[in-house]
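Hi again,

Forgot to attach this to my earlier email, sorry! This is the prediction with fe (ii) ion bound. I've pasted everything inline since the attachment limit keeps bouncing my files.
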Amino acid sequence: MTAHGAAQHSGTQPLLHQKGHELQPFGTVKQLPIGLSQDTRMYACQRLNRILADTQMLYALYKKHHWLMRGATFYQLHLLLDKHAGEQLTIVDGIAERVQSLGGVAVGDPRHAAEITGVPRPPDGVEEVPAMLSRLLEAHETVLIEARDAATRVAELGDDGTNDFIVSEVIRTGEAQVWFLAEHLVDTPLVRV
Ligand SMILES: [Fe+2]
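Structure tokens for the complex follow:
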């Protein structure tokens, strides 16, 4: 037996280049015994996936602007935007896992998320600092409007877990981040009145 053949039969050779069919299509939910109807779980997953796509874009915008930041307050904004990005990434994971716990399929690939999101694509280059901050605030508002409506609707359908997650994580974190960002757009003197 050749050295190559020996490796294949030793039980240590990974079975590479495997292809398979899609097990569960996007937009479907499987049955799970959590006391919520198929329709409710389907609706909640659809709303969550939109918020998930928007939050993935918000996260990416934060990282982009963290990298592209400039000017006298570079250091402060560079760090703040990265902190917010980290918090949004935690929310991305939480939303995706909420979709899975409802039996759905979370939006994963960023190209798929880009098809679903309502957050506009920024220019590939660098904008003025206030324009970058405004763009982040607008993305936040897109998420917050969507999240508040979704939270109300899923609560009406009895999905308190999804309602709680959206309110406690998406809305509360988003509102606090908007506050911290918006204060950087107040034109106030630092030294002399
Ligand atoms: Fe960084």
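Residues 66, 82 surround fe (ii) ion (CB under 6 Å). The chain has a mean pLDDT of 95.

That should be everything now.

G.
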